Amino acid sequence: MLIQTIESVTQLDFDAKKLEVVVVSQTPEINQIKLPSGEVKLKIITRPETDTISALRNFGVTQSSGDHLAFLDADVFLSKNWAETMLSLLNETPERIITSAMQICSDDAPPLEKIRTNLSNAEIDVDVNFLPGRNLFMSKASFYEIGGFPEHLVTCEDYYFTDKAAALGALHYSSKATYVHLGEDKQLGPMFKKEIWRGQSNLQSLQGRRVPLREWPSLVVPPAIAFCLLLGIIMFSLNLVGLGALFIVFALIPVLAYSLRLWRIAKSDVSLFNILVFYISYFPARAIGTFVGAFKQITVK
């Protein structure tokens, strides 16, 4: 997927001599891989395994020479107009500090990939409060003004970073350019494990910043659902069927509310049943990750 990502950069409708790719990896074997740079200048750098994603990205900036930065995950495929469009949108208004392209599905996308893509596209062609770190475009000056990525966080670094950026300028999510998330979740089992990993820095990401009201549901709902499910199971085991059923209903109400909201956004692209199954898996995994992450670091392949 890293090879495909770099291939998409080399195929951009942009002057290759003005492009520079800095690959920062914790895998020593990266130097043994033939990466397709073409006419694009390519740097490959290895860093210690103890470095967080934020530390890798911040170090990559120190090795770059351009006036603008494009942070990409190593599993995205950009549309050919990505660089030109992101630069144009960034310069469109002085208030804009970060631009990002819209996610689209792969040609053979299963229901889970469609669900995740529709979640990413809840708001399109508007200024948003948060952007995922898969593709972020900004000036280098803005990066330093924001203060770089938070190296103390294992996950949630993109939320923390773009939340700080939103206090300085506008974050714009546009459909004028697109990307395919090659590594998007496609099966529930692997997604469940990854959501546990993704949720581990939820509590740590709250430190040192003001938490807006809109963010509280994503923090409170997963543990609340997990707590109600646990109480329901305990009540059933004690033969308190009425209380058990009541707690299960309490757990299902937010699941149904979130599912109906996404179903309206998806516009029949995926079935309500598949969305319900997704949230029934998603919320407990996030709750587990939040709880375990408060005590230790979680690793997952």
Can you describe this structure in just a few lines?
The chain has 301 residues and is α/β, with parallel strands linked by helices.
Shape: globular
> Biggest sheet, in brief?
4 strands, mixed
Which class best fits the helix and strand makeup? alpha/beta
Oligomer: single chain
**What helical percentage do the residues reach?**
40-55%
Question: What is the string of helix and strand elements?
Answer: HEEHEEHEHEEHHEHHHH
Q: Which percent range describes the beta-strand content? A: 15-25%
What integer value in Å does the Rg equal? 21 Å
Characterize the structure shown.
It is built from ten helices and eight strands. The protein has 301 residues and is an alpha/beta fold. Strands 4, 5, 6 and 8 form a four-stranded mixed β-sheet that branches. Helix 7 packs parallel to helix 10, helix 8 runs antiparallel to helix 9 and helix 8 crosses helix 10.
Task: Record the SSE blueprint.
Elements: H1 2-10, E1 20-25, E2 41-46, H2 53-62, E3 68-72, E4 76-78, H3 82-90, E5 96-104, H4 111-120, E6 126-128, E7 135-139, H5 140-146, H6 157-166, E8 170-181, H7 188-198, H8 216-237, H9 241-266, H10 272-293
Parallel strand pairs: 1-2, 5-8
Antiparallel strand pairs: 3-7, 4-8, 6-8
Helix pairs in contact: 7-10, 8-9, 8-10, 9-10
